[in-house]
Design brief:
This protein is an alpha+beta fold. The protein is about 30% helix and about 30% strand. It has one domain: Phosphatase 2c, domain 1 (4-Layer Sandwich), CATH 3.60.40. The radius of gyration is 17 Å and the shape is globular. The longest helix is centred in the middle third of the chain and has 25 residues. It has six helices and 14 strands. The protein starts with a strand and ends with a strand.
């Protein structure tokens, strides 16, 4: 499996600081762009987006903390494990990270409520697994048609109530809630050569419609191009995305 990867994270046009962060293997990306090509998968690899929230600088800390801890958890996975075993191992690590963020929020009043989303792809033993918490997204583009592969963990979506504001998160790392859940799915059989995968924060999906994203990817857009399109639409939030082309 050969992957061509382009990532970009931008503060946007309104916010004073960037609370998003991206992870591509061992590279942490904020206010920057990055390109890489993975020819073979040697050991577990994590590719992820995290969108922070909280008080002054707390969102930045939450997204970085979570990506660093998740990256460390991935490196500690056994050489071989089935899906059920992986899910149990990840459940333990995700709960520990969640509890640590909540403790930081309790101990530091300026960081009260700090938390973040997490949407990532785990490349493990020739498999591709989705790990999803919150309302960042994973899309797949195939033969010019886009499909959303994640479900937003928002109150609006989970209660099926369009009157609830779209930004009301129902599930996140930290954020003060005692519990956390995550979607874990084996996507291996749902991927084909020439598919394009897009991981993004809601700063991108909130500015660009699915049709906008579909047209841009079909025209060959990379991560920086998508970020600029979102900025041109207003850029009201931080904008971060990773474009992965399966060759």
């Amino acid at each position: 499996m050969t992957l061509s990867i382009a990532a970009a994270s931008d503060v946007g046009c309104v916010r004073a600081n960037n609370e998003d962060m991206l992870l591509v293997q061992d590279q942490f990306i904020r206010d920057a762009s990055f390109e890489n090509r993975i020819e073979t998968v040697d050991g577990p690899i994590l590719i992820a987006v995290s969108d922070g929230m909280g008080g002054h600088a707390a969102g930045e800390l939450a997204s970085e903390f979570t990506l660093q801890r998740m990256a460390a958890a991935i490196t500690g996975l056994p050489k071989e494990a089935d899906k059920a075993s992986l899910e149990e191992l990840l459940k333990e690590q995700i709960k520990a990270i969640h509890d640590s963020l909540n403790m930081l929020g309790k101990e530091n009043p300026t960081m009260q409520g700090l938390g973040c989303t997490f949407t990532g792809l785990l490349l493990y033993n020739a498999g591709i697994y989705l790990i999803h918490v919150g309302d960042s997204r994973l899309y797949r583009q195939r033969r010019g048609l886009i499909a959303l592969l994640t479900k937003d963990h928002t109150l609006r979506n989970m209660l099926n109530d369009p009157s609830i504001p779209a930004n009301k998160i129902a599930n996140s790392f930290g954020g003060g809630a005692s519990d956390i859940f995550f979607d874990f799915e084996d996507l291996t059989d749902r991927m084909l050569p020439n598919d394009i995968l897009l991981l993004c924060s809601d700063g991108l999906s909130g500015e660009l419609s699915d049709d906008d994203i579909e047209a841009a990817l079909d025209a060959g857009a990379d991560a920086k191009t998508l970020v600029n399109l979102a900025r041109n639409k207003g850029g009201r939030d931080n904008i971060s995305c990773i474009v992965i082309r399966i060759e």
